[in-house]
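Hey, sorry to bother you again with one of my protein questions. A protein chain has come my way and I'm curious about its shape. It would help a lot if you went through both lines with me. I owe you a coffee for this, so here goes:
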Amino acid sequence: MIPIRDSIRARRWPVVTLVLMILNVLVFLWTLGFNNRDLMLWNRTFGMTPIFFQEASPWKWHGLFPAWVTFFTSQFLHGSWSHLLGNMLYLWIFGDNVEDRLGRGRFLLLYLVSGMFGNLVELWSEPYSTITVIGASGAIAGVLGAYFFMFPHAKVRSIIPIFFLFFFPISVPAVIYLGVWFLMQVLYSRSLLAGDSQSVAYLAHIGGFVIGSAVGYWYNRTHPPEAEILEIIQDPFE
């Protein structure tokens, strides 16, 4: 299922969400002019490569900066148009509402910490891997986890491709949509842990989602949603 919008209208312009999207797109466009060697060097410099943390302390300088900085810089790198556009689609649909609830500063912190924790989970799971981890997926997974608890009554309008030709639109409760999404990450990660080769950092998705869920659950307990948000949640799709 491909999400196209949700049933919540943010009350404020999602400035941080838009800035994050612009930064991700600009960095990707910048790398389009690189040849294969330069692109590999770029990703090795700014991406998170687990083996580097075994060869030296995270506080030692790795190229331009200490290795731990790559926990954050890797979040703004993408390997292909599909990688970038898929991540930006999810960030746009779910990020504006989470930013609306948390506020801009807390939302940015959630985003960066979720991405960092996702990278830490990848580092823990494969500490000697030479594969460089890049992408905003862990950070965006944190946004999805927060949305899961903050807007349990929301619905996600999605399209289902049928035979790659037709698209069937359907509205799915957000808790079901995101719950299935998280379950798929767990199933794929179990395949990864069983030794199958994977090019997607599913464990980073799980780590980010767990952090976002914890923040969303805590924030809902300490900051009950306003009445107008509850009304917006229950508005049907037009």
Q: What stands out?
A: The two ends are 20 Å apart (CA to CA). The domain at 2-233 is CATH 1.20.1540.10 (Rhomboid-like fold). The beta strands are 2-6, 61-62, 65-66, 155-162, 166-173. The CA atoms of residues 10 and 97 lie 5 Å apart.
